[in-house]
Design brief:
Helix content is 44%, strand content 18%. It is α/β, with parallel strands linked by helices. α11 packs across α12 and α17 runs antiparallel to α18.
């Protein structure tokens, strides 16, 4: 019987710098899913890799005095090294600089262009180099990038666009008819409410202001942008080709699950899906958008001195303990946290005490009381049947949790079973049973029940801790490790001999390790503080020099000024736009029949602060559409030194419509 194919992918890592532990969760999460699917009998193809083009990388390479290719070769090597260290069982590690991928991107771009889904135009907007994204002014937060908080620069350039708006209805139907398509389901609502309902705009898919990218073969001054370059790795990594798709593509793409971070869901559930619709390609079955892993309550950042790397954790706690912590600590919907105190606590409690101690003392007792031979059980009691039921239930529960991507709950199933086995030891007190002949007869059954339970634990731990799984099964002397052997209790072959008891997880001296870690952290923070102080001093000097050179705007004539019509207006009503955090919609009596103005002052004013007030409006400004609402003018405000805005209010005696001169 042929195995059912299953494709699982991660978001490909951006090669700007070495990934921290939060960036590697994608790979560990997808690896656990891939391993469990293999255990269920699926033919799994696991695809991961690196995203290696873009302006940010080009600029970084220039600053380092090397070529972009040299830079991405180095970082891609670091990413692959980390994945290999963590036991990521991928089938292909794709790089977007791979020749076959670059060829496929050019072919896909040409196909979309030829069929009219891509067209040439001009783009003008606020551009964030860090995120490599364009934003409208209304999308900015305090004048900065809404995603990373970084500086933006007004950019205008010729570009090619994907007709994203063309697929608005198809995307709406997809989300409406497939409520389980995105997991968790709450994230589907975010995509619908925040992006689909306001209406999709066509998407800029090339850049011409930098060179480090895949050139459009029929217009080489343009390079293909990330939305097509990076996203198409999911099919090119399987050997998709516009003209001749590979057998692997035909086989595995039919059952695909994407594992990504919640922050890039829009790109995968809207941009990528629209591209697949345009190409006439079958859609993925699931998109799992997992939360972030935070350092305490903060995002990891070098500037905060709270970055943790996977190799640092592995060095202190080992590969499997690092994997286990990541998978057990990340909730399904809320962000997970990493505290060293928590890592040590979980290590000592879950791994050293519950699993490690259980295996060690059971194998030791079998060697001590029966020369290592596991004797067939007999005369079972209710206590035995209860343990057996817990084993079978743990396997069933874990399957359900993996199916729904609740990996932390699946890890909890494992530890719950280990706790029950340890309780079983306390209930039966083998050391007392060994003292009498009658007791020793009962002890034969107790030892079998424990060894078979440990086999369950060994098999079920494989997706989380593959090396530990092998060690457990080796110590109890079995290779019966198929998942389907856990459908019922009793798969361990009586008469087998166990190996020697070797500790799986040595307990950690929490106080000692935390002291060392705190010393390292304090040293790093001191170094960062020094660098920050130096950078601040330099920035202050530059700002002072700049302030000394401040010039007024170019002079204008009185005739030019008179073209701007300022009028008094009474605020009759004011509401906050649901689609935006910064926009207020004001209904004004302007003495000329009334008008509506949308203004980005929600951060500093509540609607009730403005209703009934007399303000100044630029009355002859060309109407604009902001977040789907028409704005017929602009409110006059004073820009304060701290970046806030103060609305210019007039005396209530000034009539609506009065012209200001």
């Amino acid at each position: 019987m042929d195995k059912k194919p299953y494709l699982i992918t991660t978001a490909i890592a951006y090669t700007s710098k070495k990934p921290h532990i939060g960036n590697t969760y994608d790979a560990v999460c997808a690896d656990a899913l891939a391993r469990f699917k293999r255990m269920q009998g699926y033919d799994v193809f696991f695809l991961t890799g690196t995203d290696e083009h873009g302006q940010k990388i080009e600029q970084q390479a220039i600053s380092e005095g090397i070529t972009p290719k040299e830079h991405v070769d180095k970082v891609a090597g670091e990413v692959k090294e980390i994945y290999d260290m963590l036991g990521i069982s991928y089938n292909r590690f794709i790089r977007t600089t791979d020749p076959d991928h670059e060829r496929n991107v050019q072919k896909i771009f040409k196909k979309l262009y030829d069929q009219g889904d891509i067209y040439k135009s001009e783009y003008e907007g606020e551009y964030c180099v860090t995120c490599e994204s364009f934003y409208t002014e209304t999308q900015l937060v305090d004048g900065k990038c809404p995603d990373c908080g970084g500086e933006v620069k007004k950019t205008k350039e010729e570009a090619y666009f994907l007709r994203l708006s063309k697929y608005q209805k198809q995307l709406e139907d997809l989300f409406e008819n497939n409520p389980e398509f995105i997991q968790p389901v709450s994230r589907r609502k975010e995509m619908v409410n925040n992006f689909l309902k306001p209406g999709l705009q066509d998407l800029c898919v090339t850049r011409s202001s930098f060179k480090w990218g895949i050139p459009v073969d029929f217009d080489p001054k343009h390079v293909v942008y990330v939305w097509i370059d990076a996203l198409t790795n999911y099919i090119s990594g399987l050997g998709y080709d516009v003209d001749n798709p590979s057998e692997d593509y035909k086989k595995y793409w039919t059952n695909c699950t994407h594992v990504i971070g919640k922050d890039i869901l829009r790109f995968h559930s809207i941009y990528w899906i629209a591209e697949l619709m345009a190409l006439g390609i079958e859609l993925p079955k699931k998109i799992f958008a997992h939360p972030w892993l935070l350092f305490g309550t903060d995002k990891m950042s070098k500037s905060k001195g709270n970055v943790i790397y996977a190799d640092d954790l592995v060095k202190r706690f080992g590969v499997d303990a690092t994997r286990y912590y990541l998978l057990s600590e990340m909730p399904f919907t809320a962000d997970g946290s990493i505290y060293y105190e928590n890592v040590i606590e979980r290590y000592n409690t879950d791994l050293a005490n519950n699993i490690g101690n259980l295996v060690n003392r059971t194998v030791t007792m079998v060697n001590k009381y029966f020369d290592g031979v596991v004797i067939a059980p007999h005369d079972k009691t209710e206590n035995d049947f209860d343990l057996e039921a817990c084993c079978v239930a743990a396997k069933k529960s874990m399957e359900e949790h993996f199916e729904s991507f609740h990996l932390a709950d699946a890890a909890s199933d494992l530890i719950t079973l280990a706790r029950r086995a340890n309780k079983y030891i306390d209930e039966n007190e083998p050391w007392k049973l060994a003292k009498t002949d009658e007791g020793k007869s009962r002890l034969e059954t107790v030892m079998y029940e424990l060894i078979e339970t440990i086999r369950f634990i060994g098999v079920l731990s494989a997706p989380f801790m593959p090396e530990t799984s092998e060690k457990i099964l080796s110590q109890i002397g079995t290779d019966v490790s198929r998942l389907d052997t856990l459908d019922s209790f009793g798969g361990y072959v009586a008469g087998n001999k166990v190996g020697q008891a070797v500790p799986l997880f040595a307990r950690i001296d929490s106080e000692k390790v935390l002291k060392e870690l705190n010393e390292e952290r304090e040293k790093l923070q001191a170094e960062l503080a020094k660098k920050t102080e130096e950078a601040t001093a330099e920035a202050t000097a530059q700002a002072t020099a700049k302030a000394e050179k401040i010039e007024l705007a170019p002079e204008i004539t009185i005739d030019e000024f008179m073209k701007t019509e300022l009028r008094a207006a009474k605020v009759k009503d004011c509401v906050k736009l649901e689609k935006s955090n910064k926009l207020l919609k004001l209904t004004l009596d302007d003495g000329m029949g009334g008008r509506q103005v949308v203004s980005g002052i929600a951060k500093w004013y509540k609607p009730e602060d403005l209703i009934g007030k007399t303000i100044v409006v630029v009355a002859n400004l060309k109407p604009a559409k902001l977040c789907g609402e028409i704005s017929q003018g602009m409110i006059v405000c004073a820009e304060m030194p701290d970046g806030t805005a103060k609305v210019t209010f007039l005396d209530d005696s000034v009539p609506a419509g009065a012209k200001l001169r």
